[in-house]
Task: inverse folding
């Protein structure tokens, strides 16, 4: 790269880093691992993305597709499966063990999505959205995600505890 300093998102490092002289990551990762181009002033620090995305963790089936991360949509059927397993755990031999495994795997997937969400989403818009604006937008998503997640969980609990038992009678 020419005399100016440049930075971009490195998929392998999961953060924004300076470009090396060969166009790859300054930590030795190849050019293909890099996305975006931020021109840095002489003494300007490399901008940072938040390490965790609360909206990607709490509502991945909504946040993911909205940010071009369609893998988040797979969590909706997994949530429904986990809900079904939890509902039937009390009446199935060994049900609680199976439910614990399914819930643990589901939470692990949500955690991974929350951890990697900012980088994956910013990489898609790195050429047209400044980091500061992206971070501001993700804060708004986080604020909205909390009541949406509470409403989704409340709806599931209402269905499991009120609607389903009434149908059985």
Result:
């Amino acid at each position: 790269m020419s005399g100016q300093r440049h930075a971009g998102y490195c998929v392998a490092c999961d953060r924004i880093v300076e470009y090396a002289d060969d166009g790859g990551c300054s930590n030795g990762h190849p050019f293909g691992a890099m996305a975006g181009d931020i021109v840095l002033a002489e003494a300007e620090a490399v901008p940072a993305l938040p390490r965790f995305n609360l909206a990607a963790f709490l509502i991945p089936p909504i946040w993911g597709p909205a940010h071009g991360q369609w893998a988040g949509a797979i969590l909706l059927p997994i949530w429904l499966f986990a809900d079904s397993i939890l509902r039937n755990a009390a009446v199935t031999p060994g049900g609680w063990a199976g439910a614990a495994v399914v819930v643990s795997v589901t939470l692990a997937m949500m955690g991974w999505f929350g951890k990697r969400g900012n980088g994956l989403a910013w990489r898609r818009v790195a050429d047209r959205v400044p980091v500061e604006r992206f971070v501001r937008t993700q804060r708004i998503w986080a604020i909205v995600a909390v009541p949406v997640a509470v409403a989704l969980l409340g709806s599931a609990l209402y269905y499991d505890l009120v609607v389903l038992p009434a149908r059985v009678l």
Notes: The radius of gyration is 21 Å.
